[in-house]
Amino acid sequence: MSEIQPYPKVSIIILHLKNIHCLIDSILSLNKISYENFDIFIVHNGPKSKILEENLASISQRITEVINTGENVGFAMGNNIGIKQALRKGGEYILLLNDDTVVSADFLDILLDAGENKPDAGMLGSKIYYFDEPRRIWFAGAYVDSGTCMITTPGSDQIDEEESFEPIESDYITGCALLIKRQTIEQIGLLDERFFLYWEDVDWGLRAQKAGYKNLVIPGAHIWHKVSTSTGGMDSVLRVYHKTRSHLLMARIHVPKMLIPLHIKFFRDIAWLLFKSHDTNRSKKARAYIAAIRDYHLGKTDKGPQWIWNDETNKG
């Protein structure tokens, strides 16, 4: 790592739900990184698991603590539990890392180089690829349309042929792999726990921007993502429900004028599913949309109805 002495302490927070094989692969890749000053906090988003703790103790000495939440408390609250503990133990940077990722050996060196040399960078992210297609981009920056509250992700799903290593300004950094400075957290606060799943990273990034920070994707730092292993497939009922409910909350907070148009969009999506779609799960997805809109208006911020978690579409 160039020009950083001493190495700032990085605390890596890995929120784990159910796929221990992915988690182990992720930790094994962290064992090989060249950055020296880091520790790992595993937040098990569920009840205490002796088997999990025994497995983890045998594969990495970098694991400082395994924290059990007792139940699924969601992405934001689960990560916040880890962040607070990491800050108490002196973390200068916090890295949120999905448990279904594999990292390159130098990714943290590259991110820290950028973080230390760019004082206005509040959050930094890697260029993320699909695990099954190692050159196809999953995330390389994203932009939120302030007029519509919709997201565009330039480069997403394309084969990476870009040779530039210049940082990419982004409206937010995906929570899949998000490096944030301690001072940024102290200024803007933790993740908003009203977002049980999805959109919490977008909200965090916009809050950082409003506080005067930049969110930067650093193209030379590479990560590979086994997409949606913890919430089923890309079109699971669980994903439809939480994406919809959290999107409405996001609009209310940041672009309230879009709440009515967003409702209209979702009702059109429901009509399309019911009357035009050939999707074999169309009725379940329509039901998920309706439940999400209802629960948003009821002010619910919990995990949602149990049936969305039990549905077979989540076994992706």
Automatic annotation (TrEMBL):
Domain of life: Bacteria
InterPro entries to which the protein is assigned, alphabetical: Glyco_trans_2-like, Nucleotide-diphossugar_trans
Domain Glycosyltransferase 2-like residue range list: 11-179
UniProt GO molecular function: glycosyltransferase activity
Keyword Transferase in record: yes
Entry's family note: Belongs to the glycosyltransferase 2 family.
Name of this chain's protein: Glycosyltransferase family 2 protein
Organism this protein belongs to: candidate division WS5 bacterium
